[in-house]
Amino acid sequence: MPSAVQRPGAYWESERANLGWNTGTEPVLFQASWGTPVFDLRPDLRGATSRETAAYPINRVAGQQLFVSISGLNTNHLGLNFLVRQLGHPVDSALVHRFKPDEDVTGDCSTGLGAAILSIFPPSSGYPIRFWQLVIIAQWLPGIEAPPAPLPTISIQGGIY
Questions:
Q1: Could you tell me the pTM of the whole model?
Q2: DSSP for the chain?
Q3: What domains can be seen in the chain, in order of their start residue?
């Protein structure tokens, strides 16, 4: 059974974090990412095997989603794109890998309001995924204008409930 510290719940939240920009690989000029911990979507299976897991236990409830708030978005950030990458594995939290194509959510982040909120459903029973992680990737691509200097401070915070 999970320890008292690792008792499954139906809620998780992150601290607000600023993206740290790095030089990208062509054609990406700059890239940054933010990610959740690996979630154990079936904490009821803990103890069924001798394999230990460091995944964050989360009880799934109907309609549960991961909400991600992105702030610091400016309407003149042409060339700034956002991708959602989902990683998962059916039995081992240390082996999570991409199990579906990245989703381009640039349009969802181009609100013109300086911020956006994304909502992502964890994989359902259609995917044999016990361990799940989500990564948001921000990329500056060559475009009409060069990225601003210095690069903007973009903050991300997430919560699952």
A1: 0.88
A2: ---STT--BS-EEPPPEE---EE--TT-SEEEEEEPPPEES-GGGTTSSS----SEEB---TT--EEEEEE---TT-TTEEEEEEEEEESS-GGG-EE-S--EE-HHHH--SSSEEEEEEPPP-TTS--SEEEEEEEEEE---SSPPPSSPP--EEEEEE-
A3: 22-160 (2.60.120)
